[in-house]
Amino acid sequence: MLKSLYFKIVLILLIFIIAVMCAVGAILMNGVTSFYISDFTGQMTECFSGDGLLMIELEQVTADEQYADRMKQVLSSYGSILGVDQYRNYYVLNTEGEMLAGSDIELGAELPVTPNILSAINNSGGNIGTGGMDYADWAVRMNPGSESDCIIYIKDSLEEMRQLNQKLFTIILQAMVIGILIAVLLSFFLAKAISSPLQSLTYDTQLVASGEFTHEIEVRSADEIGVLADNFNYMKERLRATLEEVDGEREKLDIVLSCMRDAVLAFTADGRVLHFNNSAVELFGEPLKSETLGMEECFEILDIPLILEGNSIKLTSPDAAAEHTKDGFIFRDRTCGARVYDVSFAVIRYVSGKRQSSGCVIIIHDVTSRYELDESRREFVSNVSHELKTPLTSIKAYTETILSDPEMDAETREYFLGIVLSESDRMHRIVSDLLVLSRLDNKRTNWSVETFDLRQSVRRLCEVMRGQVSEHNHRVTFGCQRGLPEITADRQRIEQVILNILSNAIKYTPDGGKIDIKLTQLPKKFVRIEIADNGIGIPDDDIGHLFERFYRVEKSRTQDAGGTGLGLAIAKELVEAHGGRIAVKSALGEGTTVTIDLPVECKLEKNEKK
Ligand code: ADP
Questions:
Q1: Does ligand 1 come within 6 angstroms of the Cβ of 503?
Q2: Buried/exposed 447-477: b ≥16 CB within 10 Å, e otherwise
Q3: CA atoms within 13 A on the CB side of 89
Q4: From 209's CA, which of 7, 115, 365, 537 has a CA 20 to 30 Å away?
Q5: Do the Cβ atoms of 82 and 103 come closer than 8 Å?
């Protein structure tokens, strides 16, 4: 309340009124006093001047024995000119200053000896001063040295002047009270006129401070406050537009960051998380969401030996995988759990409040698929080299043996050449299979799509394999569901798949085994080819890898069977190219069932060339 603008305005006006009235009062009262005294002095000077009528008449009565009474009569007759009244009296005094006659006998009896009386007694004038503030007096020595030597003394008690001053004081006081009342009233309206737009301005600034920009300040006047309100409205508009722009930019950045597949995190220099995107939450989970994950914990999880010191980022221990970049480091192929990441660190500088701060931004790029691809490529190259090296070594060894012994008997030579031929066949098979896979990978396979009866194809294949089947003494059964539709596919390729599976069943089933082939129709226009054997089976751990290139269960047990480990991989690629699926179920020592589901109408176009 005491600090309010209203109170200040009222107080200033009150002080102003009181000060003005005090000054006016003082000047007025001082003026009245001066006027009264100078009026008294003027009157006395005029009346008692040497050639004045009063003095002449007074001189005339000095010869009289009763000169004092006569003088009193003369003075009385000049009463109006001398201004004699109840407050101003005249006296005739002897040279001792005692009253001989006077207008007020009582007062005259107790007349104090004033400086003017003393001066008159000493015959050195009688008007040396007004006698102070209590009274004004005038003394005139008459006929000094004669018998009628006396003093005419006029004394004014100044009571009239005092009463006038009192009246003036009362009037000033009344004027002051009325003035104060008017001032309070005026200041109330003035303060209201000034403070109410300021109050609404204050209210509006509070709204703006709380983020509410829709409220418009009413501009009621064209004065300074009106201009202020106008400027404030303009400022608010600019601020709103700027904030919207900043929000828009931030939103854009957020959208970009949230759409990024890379995890992005920013930390302050003291390790607190500043920003993160959705991918970062997926990677670090709840601790990041609840902001309990700090920079150090993050470094620890990623196993990164880094530390942020001021404006630079440093390695805490040497790390061969760390590559220096312009702003920090990059660590490639960092394994974290089952995933592999390229992790980049950079120092950032940003403004927080008015301070320039530094921090660190981490970008975690998931390179698992690239890493796995690289791995599988490396593995593939190593597998190919290994697979080709074995037959090549045999071919080389047997050829050298034959060449080094020209005397070798024909039977042994033939045996050795047989081995060379079979190893060349094996190499040929591997290279052909790899070529098929390469064409499939590059989508350069020449498909020859036709509509055909699957039952006839399987029968024909059984015929083709009859020799091998009877060699191993297997029993093959074939069952086909009635009304099985013809399918549209690349017949040769599908037959190649069936042949692969069938030959596996023959190979991996001990002699005298049983192989069942079944063709059935599935809903949604699919047909199923099922080839089940009661052979050696496949361990559970290997089943998931069967379709990988060059994968063979226990190489030693399958090497004899002449496998390359590419048969199932090719089968899978061919079936999937047709829009079908292939699955293997197996129990070790009990047998294996391979299921191929093919669409009645394959998704390859007839005679499509890719
Ligand atoms: P391969 O040319 O060596 O037969 P495949 O890709 O056809 O290559 O098969 C991969 C591996 O799966 C084989 O080496 C074999 O160990 C195993 N396998 C495939 N079919 C059978 C089956 N019917 N019974 C047992 N093992 C099988």
A1: no
A2: bebeebebeebbeebbeebeeebeeeebebe
A3: 19
A4: 7
A5: no
- Pick from 189, 220, 226, 227: nearest CA to 6: 189
Cα of 570 from ligand 1 centre, angstroms: 12
What phi and psi values does residue 119 have, to the nearest 5 degrees?
Answer: -65, -40
Of the candidates 288, 417, 442, the one whose C-alpha atom is nearest the C-alpha of residue 362 is 288
Low-confidence ranges of the chain (pLDDT < 50): 558, 607-610
Cα 302 to middle of ligand 1, angstroms: 40
What is the atom index within ligand 1 of the atom nearest the CA of 569? Answer: 6
DSSP-derived secondary structure for 31-88:
HHHHHHHHHHHHHHHHHTSTTSHHHHHHHHGGGSTTHHHHHHHHHHHTHHHHT-SSSE
Question: From the CA of 503, how far away is ligand 1's center (Å)?
Answer: 9
Look-up of token digits 């994950």: 293
Place of tokens 């509006």: 204
Which one, of 114, 73, 74, 108, lies nearest residue 93 by Cα?
A: 108
Per-residue pLDDT reduced to its tens digit, 571-595: 999 999 999 999 999 998 899 999 9
Residue 609 has a pLDDT of 43
Rounded to whole angstroms, the Cα distance separating 567 from 119 reads 155
What's the pLDDT score for residue 370? 87
Copy the structure tokens of residue 541: 């751990």
Amino acid sitting at position 59: E
For the CA of 565, the closest atom of ligand 1 is: 8
Instruction: Say if CB 520 and CB 455 are below 8 A apart.
Output: no
pLDDT attached to residue 561: 52
Measured from the Cα of 570, ligand 1's closest atom is 6
Quote the pLDDT of residue 1.
59
Q: Which residues are paired to 583 by β-bridges? A: 595
Model confidence pTM above 0.85:
no
